[in-house]
Specification:
Number of helices: 10
Order of helices and strands: HHHHEEEEHHEEHEEHHH
Structural class: alpha+beta
Low-confidence stretches: none
Radius of gyration: 20 Å
Distance between the termini: 31 Å
Number of domains: 1
Oligomer: single chain
Strand content: 5-15%
Helix content: 40-55%
Number of strands: 8
Mean pLDDT: 94
Largest sheet: 4 strands, antiparallel
Length: 235
């Protein structure tokens, strides 16, 4: 869990880019058990957010953190209620079958925009509870947001820019998920639970992005208090 906390620190990733590219990253070890436990506790938060089978209180279950409350809900063009039986087919052009049945990602449809006053206020309120400045909150989530479309009728509302572009293993997470679920590939419309999964992904990714200042601070503290490895001539 300590290694996971270090590996998700943006500062660590920047400073150790060469080692990571060569699949030989070095993970610094702190000089005290307390510091190691504190780092591991952050790693457990990262692990829970990455594990889509694990409910995360405040993020995907229970009372939501204010900063996440308005992220990713499913909405209908022109307002009104969605009909799960008719409105959840993914047909906005997110993926298609390539040679040999390989799924190829496509452009899909998103509409970049500014945050609404309510969306901006929710982020500002939530930033304060996390001890982040407004500038830091928008720097980590993105200065703009976008609506992500299932089809001509339905869309996921308010997916912040850095949430939308977030990658793991070189793949844009939400876009990759969508590319496999175009109706011609899936053979059916999305279920209500599947449609809500995109909202949950957006909130998990947002929580990861907002954890980055704590992950960077943890990495800096570990670097400044390294375990003194014995040299080859030590008794």
């Amino acid at each position: 869990m300590h290694a996971l906390a270090i590996g998700y620190s943006p500062a660590y990733l920047t400073e150790n880019a060469d080692g990571i590219r060569q699949y030989w990253p070095r993970i610094p070890l702190p000089d005290s058990a307390d510091r190691l436990r504190a780092s591991a506790a952050l790693g457990r938060q990262v692990a829970a957010l990455l594990d889509t089978e694990t409910p995360v209180p405040g993020v995907t279950s229970g009372a939501l953190r204010p900063v996440l409350r308005l992220l990713g809900p499913i909405a209908r063009e022109g307002g009104g209620a969605l009909d799960p039986a008719a409105d959840l087919a993914l047909t906005a052009g997110w993926g298609h079958a390539g040679k040999g049945g390989i799924t190829m990602p496509a452009k899909g449809k998103t509409v970049p925009r500014d945050y609404t006053p309510d969306e901006r206020a929710a982020i500002l309120d939530g930033a304060a509870t996390l001890g982040l400045s407004p500038e830091a909150a928008f720097r980590h989530l993105g200065e703009t947001t976008r609506d992500v479309y299932l089809n001509d009728t339905a869309y996921w509302k308010n997916v912040p820019e850095r949430v939308w572009t977030y990658t793991i293993g070189g793949y844009q997470v939400i876009k990759k998920w969508l590319s496999y679920r175009e109706r011609p590939l899936l053979g059916r419309a999305l279920t209500s639970d599947e449609a809500r999964e995109v909202m949950q992904m957006a909130r998990r990714i947002a929580a990861l992005l907002l954890l980055e200042p704590a992950l960077d601070a943890n990495y800096a503290a570990v670097k400044e208090n390294l375990y003194p490895w014995p040299g080859p001539d030590s008794p």
